[in-house]
Amino acid sequence: MINETLSKALNDQLNYELFSAHVYLAIAAYCSGESLDGFANFFTVQAEEEKFHAMKIYKYLNDRGIRVTLAGMDTPNNEYSSVLDAYEHAYEHEKEVTRRIYHLSDLAMNDREHATIQFLKWFIDEQVEEESMFDTIINKLKRIDKDSNAFFMMDSEFAARTFTPPAL
Ligand SMILES: [Fe+2]
């Protein structure tokens, strides 16, 4: 049995994952506006991943007999000074997601809610990958000029990123 505090926190996280999709779609739109279709694709795919994360929690709450409720969303940041600025914003956002997942995990551990501890392990591993990915891209972007061939090669490279949803 999941207690009220934990079920509310999981429901909040579901909503925060949907907000993350919103954040990344806004970045994709900024990139499209700059005619950087590869970077735009990268963030469209990222938004799809976030929706998948939300659905993973949605299914889990349903499986545990908890009624999901959706909340309104804040307006995401729509303006960026550069692609690097957008990636730095995304990286900070992922660090906040990690803090929230850790807090959820703390709540589950305090309540010895083993199924939820197990469920959250997937998200903890996912955050390690997300943070590492953004950190690597930011380091690359810092090394190259935004009008260089290397920058446009990165844009082309990201045009190939796709999202294949794993089983929920
Ligand atoms: Fe996520």
TrEMBL record:
It comes from the Bacteria. Residues 1-145 form the Ferritin-like diiron domain. Fe cation binds at E17, E50, H53, E94, Q127. It catalyses: 4 Fe(2+) + O2 + 6 H2O = 4 iron(III) oxide-hydroxide + 12 H(+). CDD domains: Nonheme_Ferritin. GO terms for biological process: intracellular iron ion homeostasis; iron ion transport. Iron-storage protein. This is Ferritin.
